[in-house]
Amino acid sequence: MLTAYLRALGQIFDPRIVRMIGWSVMLSVVVFVLLWTGVAWLQAETQVSSWKAVEWLADALSGVATIVATFFLFPVVVSAMIGLLLEPVARAVEDKHYPQAGAPKGLPILAALTATMRFLGKALLLNAALLVFLLFPVAYPFAWLTANAYLLSREYFELAALRHLDAKAARALRKQNGIALFFGGIVAAGLFALPVINLIAPVIVTMAMVHSFHRWRS
Predict the structure, then answer these.
(1) Cα(181)–Cα(106) distance, rounded to whole angstroms?
(2) In 130-165, where does DSSP find H-type helix?
(3) Quick one: 43 exposed, middle or buried, by C-beta within 10 A (0-12, 13-18, 19+)?
(4) 48: which of 3, 10, 33, 106 lies 20 to 30 Å off by Cα?
(5) Domain ranges of the chain
């Protein structure tokens, strides 16, 4: 997986990739703003206590809570929209590195939508369950990293694989390389955790997963 990420970074200045990075930044900013607004509104509409002093303290802490919630939910929400970038990014990688692979069958809209909605549902439920780890602040980052490494690697790899394989074959290939893929997911989650870098992380992770797919398929 490390080789896949290095090869992805080696193509980062390809004009086609640069164009997709521009779209990724715009998409990420829109998602971040909408997510920030939604979390902030939810907190503003939630009354913690009828006591003014307690409510004032809760409001004072809501800004920090909004930042934290937005930060941890961002990878999940923006990854649910990766289908908008998948095809042009994957084609740029394959045209340069895997011309012998032939034209992909493409990812049907319904299949992409189904996979994305399934991922989003699981991701939101899992991240909601992770909130219990906030009672143990030291453990939360590790729990978040582990859960999202699995989710992100699974989502990005299967979307890349579904361009060439049917759903059953894509899942089988993912399971055969589950350990390596999980470590690739740790890198993905790390990229999403880095400010600024997380704006272009969808493109980098997509490129790495396309490389991994072709390597494991061969």
Answers:
(1) 22
(2) 140-161
(3) middle
(4) 33
(5) 2-27+79-217
